[in-house]
Write a structure and sequence with these properties.
alpha+beta, Nuclear Transport Factor 2, Chain: A, 6-stranded mixed beta sheet, 33% helix
Length: 133
């Protein structure tokens, strides 16, 4: 099962790289939890828990409306039963302020019946929030 989940995560990242959000959504359960919460930073409009496939879509719309993705590098994948963990690097620029920020990240995907049912990001949320100020 972990090999199938890994293949799905790789397809999701490929869709993100190609700006194919609708393609990404095909790999998510209807009730996915999309957790982009860090410390309390109200400055960032994406720093919250997004629920359901429509919530994940809203996350990507808000991301696109507020940030330019300057780099999104995927480094390593780790699998365990129904989970896939991934490490990488992100660099973005907040459109409103022009400020750039960057951080290494780790993302954990949880699967159910071949679809992602949960996503959680560990990242420098403070750097992101400060770029919105």
């Amino acid at each position: 099962m972990s090999d199938q989940n890994l293949a799905v995560v790789k397809k999701i990242y490929q869709c993100f790289a190609e700006d194919d959000i609708s393609g990404m959504l095909e790999y998510l359960t209807e009730d996915i939890t999309w957790d982009h919460r860090g410390n309390e930073n109200p400055e960032s409009p994406i720093n919250k828990l997004w629920e359901g496939k429509s919530g994940a879509q809203s996350f990507f719309e808000t991301l696109s409306d507020t940030q330019d993705v300057l780099a999104h590098d995927v480094h390593e994948f780790f699998t365990s039963e129904n989970k896939v963990a991934v490490t990488g690097f992100y660099k973005g620029r907040v459109k409103k302020t022009g400020k750039e920020f960057a951080s290494n990240w780790a993302q954990v995907w949880e699967f159910e019946n071949g679809l992602a049912k949960a996503w959680k990001l560990t990242f420098n949320f403070t750097a992101e929030a400060l770029a919105y100020k």
